[in-house]
Automatic annotation (TrEMBL), chain A:
It comes from Ancylomarina euxinus. This is 2-oxoglutarate ferredoxin oxidoreductase subunit gamma. Residues 11-175 form the Pyruvate/ketoisovalerate oxidoreductase catalytic domain. InterPro entries: 2-oxoglutarate_synth_KorC, Pyrv/ketoisovalerate_OxRed_cat, Pyrv_flavodox_OxRed_cen. It holds the Pfam family POR. One of its GO terms (molecular function) is oxidoreductase activity, acting on the aldehyde or oxo group of donors. The keyword Isomerase does not apply. SUPFAM superfamilies: Pyruvate-ferredoxin oxidoreductase, PFOR, domain III (SSF53323). It comes from the Bacteria. Keywords: Oxidoreductase.
From TrEMBL, chain B:
Keywords: Oxidoreductase. Residues 256-350 form the Pyruvate:ferredoxin oxidoreductase core domain. It comes from Ancylomarina euxinus. Residues 15-188 form the Pyruvate flavodoxin/ferredoxin oxidoreductase pyrimidine binding domain. This is 3-methyl-2-oxobutanoate dehydrogenase subunit VorB.
Amino acid sequence: MTEEIIIAGFGGQGVLSLGKILCYSAIMQNQEVSWMPSYGPEMRGGTANVTVILSDERISSPVLKSFDTAIILNQQSMDKFVNEIKPGGTLLYDPNGITRHPERKDINIYKIQGAALATEMGNPQTFNMIIMGGFLKVKPIVLLENVKKGLEKSLPERHHKLIPLNIEAIQKGIENVETVLAL
Amino acid sequence: MGDIRLMKGNEVIAEAAIRCGCDGYFGYPITPQSEVMETLMIRRPELETGMVVVQAESEVAAINMVYGGASCGKKVMTSSSSPGISLKAEGITYLAGAELPALIVNVVRGGPGLGTIQPAQSDYFQAVKGGGHGDYKLIVLAPASVQEMNDFVELSFDLAFKYLNPALILTDGVIGQMMEKVELSEFKPRWTEEEIIAKSGTWATTGKTADRERNISTSLDLDSAKQEIFNHKLQAKYRAMQENEVRFEKINCDDADYLFVAYGSSARICQKAIEIARKKGIKVGLLRPITLFPYPIKQIQEMLGQVKGILSVEMSAGQMVEDVRLAVNGKVPVEHYGRYGGIIPTPDEVVEALEQNFLGE
């Protein structure tokens, strides 16, 4: 199994840390991982994206042009990456702020109201873990228990008290994915 | 299983330095390698192993601090990215001229000039052919994974002390910025003065006993006859490196009709290109030089009876391809494919270049 994922959105949405937690979770189930961020003059409000690869085998290129799954969290990223999803692949996106919705018919498309749900939870910082939940629902390649372990590994100990809240956010994500198009 | 972490290549350089008993790091920040010193500053190894970490006032100061530390027989290092390495070039040739062991890490970005902060491999010539003046060579190692960023720190120091010559890790913004699973090395104590003498002799400006002359660490000798003899000695050392220290990896070469030659992050991209090409029925393999000096000349030559064409893939306008051509010496066609200025080639592009050059498509 090799899963090639792009996660893209605004800086500050937790795009990079979502990727990092996903990687740690896969390490917990003995998989190989790579995490390649876009780096540069990005900052809060600018765009941020990370290519994450999870695999049972040694990973070749950490830099890719096409992806099995795209997790898209703003319009710029939608415009940039929607056509880079492999036919038969999967798009998971948050419709918040999206005006040009995906029109492809050859990929699975799922929506998750991440921003709205985070507001509902009263904590905007849970946003990326709600998205994580959405991903786990549509691509159950990482076990939830390994995500819990991954959170423990990737968060500094002083933040471990926040793990239950993060798990709650993941649950919320799992329960709130809407199918737009399933092949 | 050892200490498994998910870390950036740059962070691993710092952690590996602490763990292998490095005595001192002297640096100056520059993207995309700033995490090396950031990690060291956060880790505060001076409290743990006694390793000194100094943010110098400039790159020139940092490399000369390295010269000072190395003269004292200490395991010292610096890191930077392309424009910073140019500033350090004078200090690097002085290190080579004074036969001092040290580790320099170049996390390459696109140039020339200030260029861009995105990854490139356009410092190959600078690393392998010179950069500074004079007939000197660095031992140049090119990691292709975060794990190798860990492994090559200690290896570089071992080789630097074995040959009393500076070693350089030539990597780029991809390997520096990416995170992968890494098994960190065990902690090793810093060498004592006695251990350094036992390993590499009494060349350092320290540990003088009553029965020997003072050591002076210098690259200056105005007597040309002596300077030529000294140059002979250096050349003999470089020949010994070529004889003993070539490192490389072959991937999918056994049945290959065509060959990629690529190092570092380009080698990773070529591995994906191999997967794509083989699905199309094109039998292509990869020879990945791990040491760029000494270069795997013989290993390329051994492939010549077998392959019909070689594509050298680099994130440059064509630098390493010259060494491939020297090794091949006209026996099979050698072409170059590269993107530069901070653009990373995609695996599909690499396959397309292979097809265009050798398969008439």
